[in-house]
Write a structure and sequence with these properties.
Blueprint lengths: L2 E7 L7 H14 L4 E5 L11 E5 L12 H9 L4 E4 L3 H11 L4 E5 L11 E7 L27 E5 L11 H4 L4 E13 L2 E2 L8 E6 L4 H10 L3 E7 L8 H13 L4 E5 H4 L4 H6 L1 E9 L2 H10 L1
Parallel strand pairs: 1-5, 1-6, 2-4, 2-5, 6-7, 7-8, 10-11, 10-12, 12-13
Antiparallel strand pairs: 3-4, 8-9, 8-13
Helix pairs in contact: 1-2
């Protein structure tokens, strides 16, 4: 029987689910396992029927049609099978027939209760793990904080230390708890990693993600001076005219570079990609070996 691992959260907005899905998928791929990532494919133009973004050998649906997150997973894990679809159960049954994977990873699967799983991983922002405590539309929670109790493993992301936030202590009692932060892996473009001396440089930064100011703060901490911050809606799909406008403004402001996130970069048109770079991040997971030991044993 294939092992099914869900990675999700209880809040709206980014807690690093996609980078964790990539890291987890790559762990099992490195073991020689056949891995399939199932994603809802939110905001993909391909629609919500079952669609194969990558068959583990070739990317079959490009960024013009695929949703940004599953496409980003396919690019970063070229040996992973990546399938999107609103009904994960249908996607799972399709994958069983066509690919017979050893491992399934449900990207953003914590609320998808109709799909069984062997391990439920819940990611919480260390600084605001349960936000205001109110559910949407009055707050930023998808479900009550008590839902954390369903998790088999809890990971606090963007953690500066290893303290358990007081508001979550009763929900994570007796669970394996881990802490992670993001680390800078370099500036990249479509050609790969770039040798950029970025300290003290100026940048026009833009993004269309759930937590844009965290991205801008990240760049500032690298020692980059942001001359302009441009925010688009989450999952924004870019047009050439927007790239022209950004480059024109960056030139007027004499910015040394134009930078965005990897999630945004995969959705840029080729003309935009030629003139821009993205800041690639990796996950710095504390006690990483124990985390993967738990995944391997269950």
């Amino acid at each position: 029987m294939a092992k099914i691992i869900s990675i999700g959260n209880i809040s709206l907005g980014g807690t690093g689910k996609t980078p964790f899905a990539i890291m987890t998928a790559q762990h099992f791929i490195d073991q020689g396992k056949k891995v399939c990532v199932l994603s809802r494919g939110y905001r993909g133009r391909i629609g919500y029927d079952t669609a194969v973004i990558s068959d583990g050998e070739n990317i079959l649906i490009g960024p013009d049609m695929a949703a940004d997150e599953p496409y980003m997973i396919a690019v970063n894990c070229p040996k992973a099978i990546v399938i999107t679809g609103k009904e994960r159960r249908e996607s799972f049954e399709y994958a069983e027939r066509e690919f017979k994977p050893d491992i399934y990873i449900l990207d953003d699967g914590f609320q998808h209760k109709r799909m069984k799983r062997d391990i439920d991983i819940c990611l919480l922002d260390h600084k605001r793990p349960v936000s205001t405590g109110w559910m949407f539309p009055f707050g930023y929670l998808r479900e009550p904080a008590s839902a954390i109790e369903r998790a088999d493993i809890v990971i606090f992301t963007r953690a500066d230390d290893t303290s358990i936030p007081e508001k979550t202590a009763k929900y994570v009692k007796d669970k394996p708890v881990f802490f992670s932060d993001v680390k800078f892996a370099g500036f990249y473009n479509s050609q790969g990693k770039l040798d950029i001396d970025y300290q003290g440089k100026t940048a026009y930064a833009f993004c269309g993600i759930a937590t844009p100011y965290k991205f801008f703060s990240f760049l500032t901490k690298l020692g980059i001076k942001l001359v302009r911050r441009k925010i688009f809606g989450d999952h924004h799909r870019y047009l050439d005219r927007e790239g022209y406008s950004i480059m024109k403004k960056a030139s007027e402001m004499e910015a040394d570079m134009v930078v965005t996130t990897e999630k945004d970069y995969v959705k840029l048109t080729q003309d935009m990609k030629d003139d821009m770079v993205y800041a690639k991040i990796d996950i710095d997971l504390k006690d990483r070996e124990r985390f993967f030991q738990i995944l391997d044993m269950r």
